[in-house]
Design a protein that fits this description.
The complex is a heterodimer of chains A (250) and B (482). Chain A has one domain: P-loop containing nucleotide triphosphate hydrolases (Rossmann fold, 3-Layer(aba) Sandwich). Chain A has 10 helices and 12 strands. In chain A, the strands form 3 sheets. A 6-stranded mixed β-sheet of chain A has the order 6-9-10-3-11-12, with helices on both faces. A 4-stranded antiparallel β-sheet of chain A has the order 2-1-4-5, covered by helices on one side. The radius of gyration of chain A is 18 Å and the shape is globular. Chain B has 482 residues and is α/β, with parallel strands linked by helices. Chain B has one domain. Helix content of chain B is 25%, strand content 33%. In chain B, the strands form 3 sheets. Chain B has a 10-stranded mixed β-sheet with strand order 4-3-7-9-12-14-17-20-22-24. A 6-stranded parallel barrel of chain B has the order 13-15-18-21-19-16. In chain B, strands 1-2 form a two-stranded antiparallel ribbon. Classes of the chains: A alpha/beta (250), B alpha/beta (482). At the A-B interface, helix 2, strand 7 and helix 3 of A face helix 10 and helix 11 of B. Bound molecules: adenosine-5'-triphosphate and magnesium ion.
Chain lengths: 250, 482
């Protein structure tokens, strides 16, 4: 599904990703953990096609296509989804209109006509119930005045609406209360399927109790320095990152 | 810097010719260039006006000759040569029309291109259209239906002949001839426009609409609009326009007067899309408009405008809140792109007790354009407990565009409450990226964000107009982020 090789990226003069390798097969869930500032969100942004970052080396293959050649819109329409660490507010644009534009963008890419009003509303109803998104929030401006948790839930709602092939969740668990965490995780689990993959960025192993990953990777200083199964997350929770820095890097 | 593709997109947009930049070749009956008493007599006789109207024009001309064209600090343009303009042109079509079939086919085509064919208007929207092509109204619909309610909606020339008592009473009563350079010029040479009168207690059942169009090269457009809402009546009036592409600057100096008598309400909405000129501003329309309304006791006037066109815009729809408990509102979206310059805003003059005014202004500047808000809130000594709330927001699409806010507040009564809020922001790259990541393309992203930003104002427009206005905003800003 996704094959990242020796990926290097910088912003301005600063190199942030320093040769990152990661292969994600269809149906797999990979978790990435790592200290603050190690480059996790940068990886997510680079994959999503944010132009502030310069890719200075390496390659990313996405379903046998060169991901780095595609612009952000095309990546999204081809099935890449990013749940933002900090979802953006768009005043005056209702969540529902926003999603309709997004859904229709994807349909256009697939050669389909714009979705019919009734079908769209049914889809919204179905997907909103998946993450128990309040009806109120659907009609409010995108993320405007949403609480931190509501924003995260809205990200997962959008993901469900767009049914991506590959979803990157950047700290979707932070800011969620215990119930919301379970709801969001259930939403993600409901979407797990043999032809959909996830890259879950998190600081807390707790999320991984709900969304059980196939692999856990540790990102330090722009590189994946250690990979393992879900038990690695437990070990990290217990021991922190210092031992890795000492063991692996030294 | 993000959006490196910008230069290319910008080029594409600036290279894109004005969508409605076509002209029709209806033969015109046109006065020679220049302005003098003879020309004014010619206009008056062409319009078959009564003597008192000619006298009024000549007096205005005498006043204008003594006035000087104003200079504004934030507008730069080559002043028009008033002697090089032709002040009268009429399509060669004089007879009163009974049906659309009698309209010149060329003109019908123009209307079709504008998407405002009369049949459509009649059938779909229930809007009565007084279509102004150049300076003469060519057709008026729904007249009978309005007539049953005693509503008068006709061209200004007809009104002068058929309703002299109302015209004598109200014409120039809100914008006196001597008010400013352009109002004096307009009074001397106006060739058409619309008149609307709503009788006491009548609620006008449909939006009244006039489409303006400038069609003759070098012809100034001097419209005169007068709306009188008698006691406890209501009317919603729409004004919209597009213009053909031109090489020389086209002057437009309209005057709009609104009179809201006791307990009446007038809602006046404008979508303005005149040719802004090429990327350098060459060939665009100069739009110098005087719009003002007077509110009597417990009445309300609400101005809503979406301004996207013109090379130079100078326009301050205003309210004189004369009657106690009267209300004035101003909602505006002004978009400037490329080399456009706009200096717009409003004046709220509070005279009556418990008068309230609201100002919501949303400026959007793209390219290297300049967009100024200039507003005056004046609370006179007589205006006990007056209230004003002003919100002036500016959105910059590029680093090269400018936004300026000049709020003037004069409070001469200590019981007044005046609130002013202003913000300036650059269109968010985060917002755009968020849209892109959801599979929305850049153009649509900008359209969504900008329409969201302007929503408070767009919401004030009647439904069909709001849809049109949204499209207009998107079109005028395509690919303009930088
Ligand atoms: N726009 C930017 N300009 C300058 N530096 C940046 C920018 N974006 C990220 N960085 C830097 O890149 C490094 C990696 O940031 P990134 O957001 O990818 O970290 P992260 O692993 O997601 O951290 P966290 O766990 O705190 O979310 C940090 O040192 C950060 O300061
Ligand atoms: Mg991060």
């Amino acid at each position: 599904m996704v094959n990242i090789k020796e990926l290097k990226a910088s912003i301005g003069e600063t190199q942030i990703l320093k040769g990152l390798n990661l292969e994600i097969k269809p149906g797999e869930v990979h978790a990435i953990m790592g200290p603050n500032g190690s480059g996790k969100s940068t990886l997510a942004s680079v994959l999503a096609g944010r132009e502030d970052y310069d890719v200075t080396g390496g390659s990313v293959d996405f379903e046998s296509r060169d991901l780095l050649e595609m612009d952000a819109t095309e990546r999204a329409r081809s099935g890449l989804f990013l749940a933002f660490q900090y979802p953006v507010e768009i005043p005056g644009v209702s969540n529902i209109n926003f999603m309709r534009a997004a859904v229709n963008g994807k349909r256009e890419h697939e050669g389909l006509d714009p979705i019919k009003g009734k079908d769209f509303l049914n889809l919204v109803k179905e997907k909103a119930s998946l993450v128990e998104l309040d009806g109120r929030l659907r009609n409010r401006s995108v993320n405007e005045g949403f609480s931190g948790g509501e924003k995260k839930r809205n990200e997962i709602f959008q993901m469900a609406m767009l049914e991506p092939r590959f979803a990157v969740l950047d700290e979707t668990d932070s800011g969620l209360d215990i119930d919301a965490l379970r709801i969001v995780a259930n939403g993600v689990n409901a979407m797990r399927s043999p032809d959909r993959s996830f890259l879950v960025i998190t600081h807390y192993q707790r999320l991984l109790d709900y969304i059980v990953p196939d692999f856990v990777h540790v990102l330090v200083d722009g590189k994946i320095v250690l990979s393992g199964d879900k038990d690695l997350a437990l070990k990290l929770e217990e021991k922190g990152y210092d031992w890795i820095k000492e063991d692996v890097i030294a | 810097m993000a959006y490196d593709g910008n230069d290319k997109v910008l080029e594409e947009v600036t290279g894109k010719s004005y969508e409605f930049g076509f002209t029709t070749d209806i033969e015109s009956d046109k006065a020679p260039a220049g302005l003098n008493e003879d020309i004014i007599r010619l206009i008056s006789s062409k319009k078959e006006e009564p003597e008192w109207m000619l006298k009024w024009r000549l007096e205005a001309f005498a006043v204008w000759k003594k006035m000087e064209e104003p200079n504004w600090p934030h507008l730069q343009y080559k002043k028009p040569d008033y002697q090089a303009i032709s002040y009268y042109s009429a399509p060669k079509q004089k007879k009163q029309l009974n049906s659309l079939d009698e309209v010149d086919p060329e003109m019908r085509k123009t209307m079709d291109k504008l998407g405002i064919s009369m049949e459509e208007q009649k059938r779909l929207s229930g809007v009565a259209v007084d279509f102004v092509m150049d300076s003469v109204s060519v057709a008026t619909s729904f007249k009978e239906k309005l007539g049953e309610l005693g509503i008068i909606f006709c061209s200004m020339s007809d009104a002068v002949k058929e309703h002299p008592e109302l015209i004598k009473k109200y014409l120039g009563s809100v914008v006196p001839t001597k008010d400013n350079f352009f109002s004096a010029l307009n009074a001397a040479v106006f060739t058409d426009g619309s008149f609307c009168y709503i009788p006491k207690g009548v609620r006008c059942p449909m939006e009244l609409s006039t489409y303006f169009r400038i069609n003759e090269s070098g012809t100034g457009q001097f419209e005169r609009t007068l709306v009188v809402a008698d006691e406890a009546s209501y009317v919603s009036y729409l004004e919209g326009c597009t213009a053909p592409q031109r090489d020389e600057n086209q002057l437009h100096a309209a005057v709009v007067e609104l009179v809201a008598l006791d307990e009446a309400e007038i809602k006046y909405s404008t979508v303005q899309n005149w040719y802004p000129g090429d990327a350098e501003g060459k060939g665009g329309v100069f739009n110098f408009v005087t719009k003002r309304g007077i509110c009597h006791r417990r009445s309300k006037i609400s101005w809503t405008q979406v301004e996207t066109g013109s090379a130079v815009t100078w326009k301050y729809p205003s309210c004189i809140l004369k009657g106690d408990h009267s209300v004035g509102e101003f909602y505006s979206v002004a978009v400037t792109n490329n080399a456009q310059q706009a200096d717009t805003g409003t004046k709220m003059i509070h005279l009556g007790k418990n008068t309230h005014s609201t100002i919501i202004s949303k400026g959007i500047s793209a390219g290297k354009s300049h967009n100024s808000y200039r507003g005056l809130v004046q609370i006179m000594p007589s205006a006990d407990n007056a209230r004003n709330f002003s919100q002036c927001d500016s959105l910059l699409m590029t680093d090269t565009s400018g936004a300026h806010t000049f709020p003037y507040i004069e409070v001469k009564n200590p019981t007044a409450k005046v609130e002013h809020e202003a913000t300036t922001s650059k269109i968010g790259e985060d917002q755009i990226f968020y849209c892109l990541q959801r599979g929305i393309d850049e153009e649509q992203a900008i359209s969504l964000i900008v329409n969201g930003y302007a929503k408070e104002v767009l919401n004030q427009l009647p439904m069909e107009f709001a849809v049109e206005a949204q499209k207009l905003l998107s079109i005028s800003l395509e690919g303009s982020v930088g």
